[in-house]
Amino acid sequence: MNDLTQSAFAKPRVVGQRTPRIDGEYKLTGRAGYTGELLAEGMRYGYPVPATIANGVLESLELDDALAMPGVVDILHHGHFESLHRSPNSMAHGDMVSEVRLPFEDERIYYHGQYVALVVAETFEQARAAAQRVVARYREDDGAVVGLLHTDTQGELQESAGTSRGDPEAAFGGAEVKIDSTYQIAAESHLQMEMHATLAEWRDDGKRLVVHESTQGVFFQRNAMARIFGIAQENLEVISHYIGSGFGNKLFMWPHAVATAVAARMVGRPVKVVLPRQQDMTGGGNRPASRQRVRLGADRSGKLTSVIHDSTTETSWVHQYVDACGSATPSFYACDNVSTSQRVLEVNHGTPCPMRAPGEVSGIFALETAMDELAVELGMDPVALRQKNNAEQDPASGLPWSSKHLDECLTSAARRFGWDKRDPAIGSMRDGDEIIGYGMASCTWSAGRQPCEARVELRADGSLFAACGTQDIGTGTYTIVAQAVAELTGTDLSRIEVKLGETSLPAGPLSGGSMATATVLPAVAAAVRDALDAIKEVAVGSGGAFEGSDADSLSAEAGGLTDGKRRVSFAEILETSKLSSVNGKGSAAPGDERSEYSFRSFGAHFVEIRIDPEISRVRVARVVSTIDIGRAINPPTARNQVEGGIVMGLGMGLLEKLDYDPRDARLINANVADYIVPTHADAPEIDVELLDYPDFKHNEFGGRGVGEIGLTGVAPAIANAIYHATGKRYRDLPITIEALLASS
Amino acid sequence: MMDDSVHSRTAFSETLSLNLTLNGEPLTLQVAPNAVLLDVLREQLGLGGTKKGCDHGQCGACTVQVDGQAMNSCLRLAVMCEGQHVTTVEGLARDGELHPVQQSFLECDAFQCGYCTPGQMMSASALLEDDRIGTDDASVKEAMSGNICRCGAYKNILEAIQQARVQLAHDATAPRKEGVA
């Protein structure tokens, strides 16, 4: 049975309530130790030397001057590096990496910023100075592939990534109304505030490797390193207590971590590498550029008869990454004839990787802009068009939704936004010199869940301890784990200690894909229940606080056990039986419900933009959103995720673009000033409503995850608003001031 | 005339003596002439609260206060701080009590990953004392735009700063504890 409306979480006291982050004070006082600021006894500093070309061969390295500089210990490069193995790069086996090519594997240069050497020195200043003294000589080859959007070359078709139902081509051919548009999105940078960082140390005479990494997946990195270095997983420890966010580029290990661990072994000391921002942007992951053709067929009433969504994205020459743009499309609208296809083109860029709502956010831009075009073609309200095509069940799987409230999202957000005041005529709404545009789009993200283990201790000092080998990348995982423990034990949050981010803890999931909450909390709950069973055994045993009682007659209440007449605290029960603690282990995994229901979150964004036509300046003034994520375990942190997604969506819509030099494929704007992200002054007025329909079919807590969905749908809502204001349809992102000027 | 490598060897192996007041405590230390204040704080003094986000004065994560002014510590050589008062996030709380800005950041959930947060708070606590900056939301947003938050918690950051403003005004007018007795 998965319908757990009778569970402990049907009417929770702590879960679902506003809870300040339990790690907040650490972050706010500077005591939270992020990887880059950790120090180790005798530590040395590594500083990578990046390739300055994007396509060619490293012909020589002149190292003598650098090696002679003060404090320089060693310089690693091709020919002076350990012989290692590649990771099998398997998602199923948990050893996926971001780039399978090992550092310094050969002398071929595949992208700008690829490491050609790693300088190790006694101080950071010495390492940086020596890295700048290394002279690399290259043979630069012609024919660098500058990027998908610079070429008409077709990428390679990914047979396994496509889907089809019905006869979409025939249905499109015979459709009464047709839209056939192509959309292009520039490559983006994650620009997570903390750059990639590694501190590696070999212990026990080189038998054991301990790595601190700013990562969204300690277990994935441990497993991959075990394969690469050929050592037992038990002799590897990966630790990540605080992460300066990731947005996907810290899911899987990058070559700098391998190079750092090798350096630590070669110099016989701990070595720390913090990537300079420029290198983080060239070689530490990006959202690949995409080109998408969307064809929509509909009848005059607005009913979709065909959806054909063909996508191409970039990958690098050294690693195959598929950014599946069409993955939400088969489930988005009720339509009998739907197909998606995916192609991938190799380009001379650093390897792309998942970035927040990977694939789908790009696909939803194309689909939801096409839907706006269809609404215009039909003379139909964009909200009504979406309601007309609402998928009552998942048309991709044929299964009922576990819980879907898109219609309420659309109507509630439209009401709060004031959509009824929208005059659909182009450029009809003005405020002084500004033209106002109203646009909207639906948003969605799948609700996944992974297997997970957890451990809980009840301690004689009255404290509780919960542990899981997942991470808190800023989403608030520490806090929701504590909330779950508090809920089930009645213990005050201040007495609960949570440990995450270590491979010595029970195996936990990646912090990604909006899956951590639904994955981790059920395992924590199972561990709590196991610990409660253990303390009940103690309590009813000889000399116990409830000696002779039936364990089943006891229940947890306010940090203790009660038989209905008398409550004794956990601490007192343990004290009475002369125990320091009891331990509970738990595990949880998705089950049969996955074949009975489809799990996906939906929502809607409504956007007001204002354009000053004299200077082609567009600003997002207001965003009103309603999102259904099941239950928000901690509403303020969940809302913060959606608000942050909206801000990032503003960047995707108007600002963000990795610029590659058309002459040689070098990344031009690899810095925080020239790659433009939204600042505080860019942030619009934001009104986010989270519906509260716990999805107990998904898990007993009712939460479906919240990290990605807020970002999806923002960029098309902006583009649709700009169309409403200007009558110009922008199908390429970002919609920069240059683009607006060019077409004004 | 010395050639480059000799010059570099001399420069990078020598250290200079630096006297400053750090978070209220006088301090003397030896620093390399090319050492940046941010790196001295993080690597030499073990004060990791000041963050490195770009090392180029573009993101604001490294913001500290030098003689009460918010500055990017990544753009300042350590030796330039001779005789100056430097305050980092570690010096924001007083006597074990969170600064009103820290307290309001906690209450308003004005952060996610927390990495830009020390810089945000050092800028915020400086601007709240700066008469040149207006108290309205637009002025605060403009003044805070040197501190990028990629998690996008701007809405809550603004709310936290305005809440701290109220608290600071209240603290300034409240009777002193010893006076109440």
UniProtKB/TrEMBL annotation, chain A:
Name of this chain's protein: Aldehyde oxidase
SMART domains in UniProt: Ald_Xan_dh_C (SM01008)
Highest taxon of the lineage: Bacteria
Residues forming coiled coils: none
UniProt keyword annotation of Oxidoreductase present: yes
InterPro entries: Ald_Oxase/Xan_DH_a/b (IPR000674), Ald_Oxase/Xan_DH_a/b_sf (IPR036856), Ald_Oxase/xanthine_DH-like (IPR016208), AldOxase/xan_DH_MoCoBD1 (IPR008274), AldOxase/xan_DH_MoCoBD2 (IPR046867), AldOxase/xan_DH_Mopterin-bd_sf (IPR037165)
Record domain Aldehyde oxidase/xanthine dehydrogenase a/b hammerhead: where: 29-142
Keywords: Molybdenum, Oxidoreductase
Keyword Oxidoreductase applies: yes
Gene3D superfamilies: Aldehyde oxidase/xanthine dehydrogenase, a/b hammerhead (3.90.1170.50), Aldehyde oxidase/xanthine dehydrogenase, molybdopterin binding domain (3.30.365.10)
Family: Belongs to the xanthine dehydrogenase family.
Gene Ontology molecular functions: iron ion binding; oxidoreductase activity
Organism, as annotated: Salinicola socius
From TrEMBL, chain B:
Metal-binding as UniProt keyword: yes
Keywords, in A-Z order: 2Fe-2S, Iron, Iron-sulfur, Metal-binding, Oxidoreductase
Domain of life assignment: Bacteria
Entry keyword Iron-sulfur: yes
UniProt GO MF annotations: 2 iron, 2 sulfur cluster binding; metal ion binding; oxidoreductase activity, acting on the aldehyde or oxo group of donors
Pfam families: Fer2, Fer2_2
The 2Fe-2S ferredoxin-type domain, residue ranges: 16-92
PANTHER family assigned to the protein according to its UniProt record, in alphabetical order: OXIDOREDUCTASE WITH IRON-SULFUR SUBUNIT (PTHR45331:SF2), OXIDOREDUCTASE, IRON-SULPHUR BINDING SUBUNIT-RELATED-RELATED (PTHR45331)
Protein name from the UniProt record: 2Fe-2S ferredoxin
